[in-house]
Amino acid sequence: EASPLVALKRCPILITEELPPEAIKVFRRVFPEAAILPENQQTVSGILEAADGARAIILTVKYRLDEAFFQALPKSVEIIALYSSGFDHVDLAAARERRVTLINTPNILADSVADLAMALILGAARRVLEGVDLIRSGRWAGFSPTLLLGKEMRGRVLGIFGMGNIGREVSTRAQAFGMNVAYRNRTQLPRENEGGARYVADERAFLEGCDILLLAAPLTPETHKFLNAERIRWLPQGAIVVNISRGELIDDDAFLDALLNRHVAAAGLDVYTNEPAVDQRYLTTPGVLPLPHIGSATIEARIAMAETLVDDIERILLGERPSNAL
Ligand code: DGY
Questions:
Q1: 236-250: per-residue pLDDT in tens?
Q2: Residue 167, domain member (yes or no)
Q3: Which intervals hold domain D-isomer specific 2-hydroxyacid dehydrogenase catalytic (predicted)?
Protein backbone atom coordinates (compact mmCIF):
# COMPACT_ATOMS: atom_id res chain seq x y z
CA GLU A 1 0.00 0.00 0.00
CA ALA A 2 1.20 3.54 -0.85
CA SER A 3 2.30 5.80 2.02
CA PRO A 4 -0.17 8.57 2.90
CA LEU A 5 2.08 11.14 1.19
CA VAL A 6 2.34 9.18 -2.03
CA ALA A 7 -1.41 8.62 -1.98
CA LEU A 8 -1.84 12.34 -1.44
CA LYS A 9 0.18 13.19 -4.53
CA ARG A 10 -1.97 10.89 -6.62
CA CYS A 11 -5.20 12.26 -5.22
CA PRO A 12 -7.49 13.09 -8.14
CA ILE A 13 -8.44 16.77 -7.91
CA LEU A 14 -10.67 18.54 -10.39
CA ILE A 15 -10.32 22.29 -10.84
CA THR A 16 -13.51 23.32 -12.59
CA GLU A 17 -12.26 26.42 -14.37
CA GLU A 18 -9.09 28.23 -15.33
CA LEU A 19 -7.33 29.93 -12.40
CA PRO A 20 -4.32 32.25 -12.61
CA PRO A 21 -1.22 30.14 -13.40
CA GLU A 22 0.30 31.06 -10.02
CA ALA A 23 -2.72 29.52 -8.28
CA ILE A 24 -2.62 26.40 -10.45
CA LYS A 25 1.02 26.04 -9.50
CA VAL A 26 0.04 26.04 -5.82
CA PHE A 27 -2.40 23.18 -6.44
CA ARG A 28 0.01 21.20 -8.59
CA ARG A 29 2.87 21.54 -6.12
CA VAL A 30 0.96 19.21 -3.80
CA PHE A 31 -1.33 17.51 -6.29
CA PRO A 32 0.73 17.18 -9.50
CA GLU A 33 -2.13 15.48 -11.29
CA ALA A 34 -4.79 18.11 -10.55
CA ALA A 35 -6.90 18.43 -13.70
CA ILE A 36 -8.47 21.57 -15.12
CA LEU A 37 -11.86 21.20 -16.73
CA PRO A 38 -11.76 22.28 -20.39
CA GLU A 39 -13.77 25.39 -21.15
CA ASN A 40 -16.35 23.61 -23.28
CA GLN A 41 -17.22 21.38 -20.31
CA GLN A 42 -17.69 24.19 -17.82
CA THR A 43 -21.36 23.67 -17.08
CA VAL A 44 -22.98 21.97 -14.10
CA SER A 45 -23.55 18.80 -16.09
CA GLY A 46 -20.01 18.95 -17.49
CA ILE A 47 -18.63 19.29 -13.97
CA LEU A 48 -20.70 16.41 -12.64
CA GLU A 49 -19.56 14.19 -15.48
CA ALA A 50 -15.89 15.10 -15.08
CA ALA A 51 -16.08 14.78 -11.28
CA ASP A 52 -16.56 11.03 -11.52
CA GLY A 53 -13.36 9.62 -10.07
CA ALA A 54 -12.23 12.88 -8.42
CA ARG A 55 -11.98 13.05 -4.64
CA ALA A 56 -11.98 16.82 -4.39
CA ILE A 57 -13.42 19.46 -6.70
CA ILE A 58 -12.63 23.15 -6.71
CA LEU A 59 -15.52 25.48 -7.53
CA THR A 60 -16.00 29.26 -7.76
CA VAL A 61 -19.18 31.22 -7.03
CA LYS A 62 -20.20 30.83 -10.67
CA TYR A 63 -22.30 27.75 -9.98
CA ARG A 64 -25.28 27.36 -7.65
CA LEU A 65 -24.60 24.27 -5.60
CA ASP A 66 -28.17 23.26 -4.87
CA GLU A 67 -29.85 20.08 -3.75
CA ALA A 68 -29.91 18.66 -7.29
CA PHE A 69 -26.15 19.26 -7.58
CA PHE A 70 -25.35 17.39 -4.38
CA GLN A 71 -27.72 14.55 -5.26
CA ALA A 72 -26.04 14.13 -8.64
CA LEU A 73 -22.50 14.36 -7.25
CA PRO A 74 -20.49 11.23 -8.14
CA LYS A 75 -19.72 8.92 -5.21
CA SER A 76 -15.97 9.48 -5.55
CA VAL A 77 -16.24 13.15 -4.46
CA GLU A 78 -15.49 13.64 -0.77
CA ILE A 79 -14.47 17.29 -0.73
CA ILE A 80 -16.07 20.38 -2.25
CA ALA A 81 -13.50 23.16 -2.04
CA LEU A 82 -15.05 26.58 -2.57
CA TYR A 83 -12.62 28.94 -4.25
CA SER A 84 -14.47 31.76 -2.48
CA SER A 85 -15.11 33.19 0.91
CA GLY A 86 -18.85 33.49 0.36
CA PHE A 87 -21.01 30.38 0.50
CA ASP A 88 -24.49 31.81 0.06
CA HIS A 89 -24.63 29.96 -3.27
CA VAL A 90 -24.39 26.59 -1.53
CA ASP A 91 -27.22 24.53 -0.06
CA LEU A 92 -25.47 23.58 3.19
CA ALA A 93 -28.19 21.17 4.29
CA ALA A 94 -27.91 19.27 0.99
CA ALA A 95 -24.12 19.14 1.38
CA ARG A 96 -24.52 17.74 4.88
CA GLU A 97 -27.05 15.19 3.69
CA ARG A 98 -24.61 14.05 0.99
CA ARG A 99 -21.84 13.86 3.67
CA VAL A 100 -19.41 15.80 1.57
CA THR A 101 -16.84 18.00 3.34
CA LEU A 102 -17.18 21.64 2.36
CA ILE A 103 -14.32 24.08 2.76
CA ASN A 104 -13.87 27.74 1.74
CA THR A 105 -11.33 30.59 1.86
CA PRO A 106 -12.32 33.03 4.60
CA ASN A 107 -10.18 35.87 6.06
CA ILE A 108 -7.45 36.00 3.42
CA LEU A 109 -9.48 38.13 0.99
CA ALA A 110 -9.85 41.03 3.40
CA ASP A 111 -7.01 43.20 2.07
CA SER A 112 -7.98 42.70 -1.53
CA VAL A 113 -11.68 43.43 -0.98
CA ALA A 114 -10.98 46.32 1.39
CA ASP A 115 -8.73 47.95 -1.21
CA LEU A 116 -11.51 47.70 -3.78
CA ALA A 117 -14.05 49.05 -1.28
CA MET A 118 -11.84 52.14 -0.94
CA ALA A 119 -11.61 52.41 -4.72
CA LEU A 120 -15.43 52.35 -4.93
CA ILE A 121 -15.86 54.82 -2.06
CA LEU A 122 -13.36 57.27 -3.55
CA GLY A 123 -14.49 56.65 -7.11
CA ALA A 124 -18.15 57.28 -6.24
CA ALA A 125 -17.40 60.32 -4.04
CA ARG A 126 -15.11 61.91 -6.65
CA ARG A 127 -17.27 61.02 -9.68
CA VAL A 128 -14.44 59.17 -11.35
CA LEU A 129 -16.61 57.40 -13.90
CA GLU A 130 -18.28 60.64 -15.01
CA GLY A 131 -14.78 62.08 -15.44
CA VAL A 132 -13.64 59.13 -17.55
CA ASP A 133 -16.82 59.32 -19.64
CA LEU A 134 -16.37 63.04 -20.21
CA ILE A 135 -12.77 62.88 -21.34
CA ARG A 136 -13.32 59.80 -23.50
CA SER A 137 -16.30 61.42 -25.24
CA GLY A 138 -14.15 64.32 -26.41
CA ARG A 139 -16.58 66.80 -24.79
CA TRP A 140 -14.16 68.05 -22.13
CA ALA A 141 -13.72 71.79 -22.62
CA GLY A 142 -10.84 72.30 -20.20
CA PHE A 143 -10.47 73.03 -16.51
CA SER A 144 -13.51 74.50 -14.84
CA PRO A 145 -14.02 75.31 -11.15
CA THR A 146 -17.54 73.93 -11.38
CA LEU A 147 -16.66 70.68 -13.09
CA LEU A 148 -17.55 67.38 -11.38
CA LEU A 149 -17.54 68.56 -7.79
CA GLY A 150 -17.37 65.67 -5.37
CA LYS A 151 -16.99 65.12 -1.66
CA GLU A 152 -13.88 64.96 0.54
CA MET A 153 -13.41 62.09 2.93
CA ARG A 154 -12.12 63.92 6.01
CA GLY A 155 -14.72 64.16 8.74
CA ARG A 156 -17.32 62.08 6.89
CA VAL A 157 -18.99 59.17 8.61
CA LEU A 158 -18.46 55.80 6.99
CA GLY A 159 -21.03 53.31 8.26
CA ILE A 160 -20.02 49.69 7.86
CA PHE A 161 -22.88 47.23 7.84
CA GLY A 162 -21.27 43.92 8.80
CA MET A 163 -17.99 44.29 10.63
CA GLY A 164 -16.02 41.17 9.76
CA ASN A 165 -12.43 40.97 8.66
CA ILE A 166 -13.17 42.98 5.48
CA GLY A 167 -15.01 45.67 7.42
CA ARG A 168 -12.09 45.99 9.83
CA GLU A 169 -9.61 46.47 7.00
CA VAL A 170 -11.83 49.11 5.40
CA SER A 171 -12.18 50.81 8.77
CA THR A 172 -8.41 51.12 9.18
CA ARG A 173 -8.01 52.48 5.66
CA ALA A 174 -10.90 54.94 6.07
CA GLN A 175 -9.47 56.31 9.31
CA ALA A 176 -6.23 57.05 7.49
CA PHE A 177 -8.35 59.26 5.20
CA GLY A 178 -9.68 61.13 8.25
CA MET A 179 -13.09 59.48 8.28
CA ASN A 180 -15.11 58.60 11.35
CA VAL A 181 -16.18 54.99 11.18
CA ALA A 182 -19.35 53.56 12.69
CA TYR A 183 -20.53 49.98 12.36
CA ARG A 184 -23.56 47.86 12.81
CA ASN A 185 -23.62 44.15 13.53
CA ARG A 186 -26.02 41.83 15.27
CA THR A 187 -24.01 42.47 18.45
CA GLN A 188 -21.14 44.67 19.48
CA LEU A 189 -17.73 43.09 18.91
CA PRO A 190 -14.90 42.87 21.42
CA ARG A 191 -12.84 46.03 21.23
CA GLU A 192 -9.87 44.36 19.47
CA ASN A 193 -12.16 43.35 16.60
CA GLU A 194 -13.78 46.75 16.15
CA GLY A 195 -11.03 48.17 13.94
CA GLY A 196 -11.28 51.53 15.73
CA ALA A 197 -14.93 51.90 14.70
CA ARG A 198 -17.84 52.96 16.91
CA TYR A 199 -20.71 50.51 17.39
CA VAL A 200 -24.20 51.89 16.82
CA ALA A 201 -26.79 49.57 18.29
CA ASP A 202 -29.85 51.25 16.83
CA GLU A 203 -30.29 50.49 13.15
CA ARG A 204 -32.14 53.68 12.30
CA ALA A 205 -29.62 55.87 14.16
CA PHE A 206 -26.83 54.03 12.36
CA LEU A 207 -28.30 54.68 8.90
CA GLU A 208 -29.24 58.29 9.73
CA GLY A 209 -25.59 58.91 10.59
CA CYS A 210 -24.03 57.46 7.41
CA ASP A 211 -22.50 59.86 4.89
CA ILE A 212 -21.27 56.72 3.19
CA LEU A 213 -22.78 53.29 3.79
CA LEU A 214 -20.68 50.22 3.05
CA LEU A 215 -22.48 46.89 2.78
CA ALA A 216 -20.03 44.24 3.95
CA ALA A 217 -22.25 41.65 5.63
CA PRO A 218 -22.64 38.17 4.18
CA LEU A 219 -25.88 37.32 2.39
CA THR A 220 -28.17 35.44 4.78
CA PRO A 221 -31.96 35.34 5.17
CA GLU A 222 -31.57 38.23 7.68
CA THR A 223 -29.52 40.46 5.36
CA HIS A 224 -31.49 39.67 2.17
CA LYS A 225 -32.82 43.03 0.82
CA PHE A 226 -31.50 44.77 3.94
CA LEU A 227 -31.32 48.04 2.03
CA ASN A 228 -35.03 48.45 1.30
CA ALA A 229 -37.13 51.57 0.70
CA GLU A 230 -37.63 52.30 4.39
CA ARG A 231 -33.96 52.02 5.32
CA ILE A 232 -32.92 54.02 2.27
CA ARG A 233 -35.18 56.84 3.53
CA TRP A 234 -33.27 56.79 6.84
CA LEU A 235 -30.01 57.59 5.02
CA PRO A 236 -29.21 61.32 4.90
CA GLN A 237 -29.99 63.19 1.68
CA GLY A 238 -26.99 62.82 -0.65
CA ALA A 239 -25.56 59.68 0.96
CA ILE A 240 -23.23 57.37 -0.95
CA VAL A 241 -23.74 53.60 -0.89
CA VAL A 242 -21.07 51.00 -1.67
CA ASN A 243 -21.72 47.27 -1.94
CA ILE A 244 -18.89 44.74 -1.94
CA SER A 245 -20.93 41.90 -0.41
CA ARG A 246 -23.73 40.44 -2.51
CA GLY A 247 -26.24 42.21 -4.74
CA GLU A 248 -29.12 40.61 -2.91
CA LEU A 249 -28.52 42.86 0.13
CA ILE A 250 -30.17 45.64 -1.88
CA ASP A 251 -33.77 46.04 -3.02
CA ASP A 252 -32.87 47.16 -6.54
CA ASP A 253 -36.13 48.95 -7.43
CA ALA A 254 -36.11 51.03 -4.26
CA PHE A 255 -32.40 51.76 -4.60
CA LEU A 256 -32.64 52.84 -8.23
CA ASP A 257 -35.54 55.14 -7.33
CA ALA A 258 -33.36 56.72 -4.65
CA LEU A 259 -30.51 57.19 -7.11
CA LEU A 260 -32.80 58.72 -9.72
CA ASN A 261 -34.37 61.18 -7.28
CA ARG A 262 -30.87 61.95 -5.89
CA HIS A 263 -31.70 60.94 -2.31
CA VAL A 264 -28.68 58.69 -2.79
CA ALA A 265 -26.05 60.77 -4.59
CA ALA A 266 -23.77 57.99 -5.78
CA ALA A 267 -23.14 54.27 -5.57
CA GLY A 268 -20.15 52.00 -5.98
CA LEU A 269 -21.23 48.46 -6.81
CA ASP A 270 -19.15 45.35 -7.26
CA VAL A 271 -21.97 42.83 -6.89
CA TYR A 272 -25.47 42.36 -8.31
CA THR A 273 -28.63 40.39 -7.76
CA ASN A 274 -28.59 37.21 -9.79
CA GLU A 275 -25.09 37.53 -11.32
CA PRO A 276 -23.96 37.59 -14.03
CA ALA A 277 -27.22 39.33 -14.89
CA VAL A 278 -26.98 43.05 -14.13
CA ASP A 279 -30.01 45.26 -13.82
CA GLN A 280 -29.28 47.44 -16.85
CA ARG A 281 -30.48 50.54 -15.02
CA TYR A 282 -27.25 50.40 -12.98
CA LEU A 283 -25.31 50.95 -16.19
CA THR A 284 -27.23 54.04 -17.26
CA THR A 285 -28.11 55.78 -14.00
CA PRO A 286 -25.83 58.75 -13.30
CA GLY A 287 -23.69 58.44 -10.20
CA VAL A 288 -23.31 54.66 -10.35
CA LEU A 289 -19.81 53.23 -10.54
CA PRO A 290 -20.35 49.57 -11.50
CA LEU A 291 -17.64 46.90 -11.39
CA PRO A 292 -17.90 43.21 -12.38
CA HIS A 293 -17.38 41.39 -9.02
CA ILE A 294 -13.64 41.91 -8.78
CA GLY A 295 -13.28 42.49 -5.03
CA SER A 296 -10.98 39.50 -4.57
CA ALA A 297 -9.32 39.88 -7.97
CA THR A 298 -5.70 40.37 -6.97
CA ILE A 299 -2.93 37.94 -7.63
CA GLU A 300 -2.11 37.88 -3.90
CA ALA A 301 -5.65 36.86 -3.01
CA ARG A 302 -5.90 34.25 -5.78
CA ILE A 303 -2.67 32.61 -4.59
CA ALA A 304 -3.71 32.74 -0.93
CA MET A 305 -7.07 31.18 -1.84
CA ALA A 306 -5.30 28.27 -3.52
CA GLU A 307 -2.93 27.84 -0.56
CA THR A 308 -5.80 27.84 1.92
CA LEU A 309 -7.68 25.17 -0.02
CA VAL A 310 -4.59 23.02 -0.61
CA ASP A 311 -3.75 23.09 3.12
CA ASP A 312 -7.23 22.01 4.04
CA ILE A 313 -7.51 19.32 1.37
CA GLU A 314 -4.20 17.91 2.59
CA ARG A 315 -5.45 17.92 6.16
CA ILE A 316 -8.65 16.14 5.22
CA LEU A 317 -6.85 13.49 3.17
CA LEU A 318 -4.45 12.88 6.05
CA GLY A 319 -7.39 12.41 8.39
CA GLU A 320 -6.92 15.73 10.17
CA ARG A 321 -9.46 18.43 10.85
CA PRO A 322 -9.64 21.18 8.17
CA SER A 323 -9.32 24.80 9.33
CA ASN A 324 -12.21 26.11 7.26
CA ALA A 325 -14.93 23.49 7.24
CA LEU A 326 -18.43 24.85 6.72
C1 DGY B 1 -15.99 35.46 -2.54
O2 DGY B 1 -14.91 34.94 -2.30
O3 DGY B 1 -17.01 35.21 -1.90
C4 DGY B 1 -16.05 36.43 -3.67
O5 DGY B 1 -17.21 37.17 -3.62
C6 DGY B 1 -15.99 35.75 -5.02
O7 DGY B 1 -15.19 34.69 -5.07
A1: 999 999 999 999 999
A2: yes
A3: 13-325
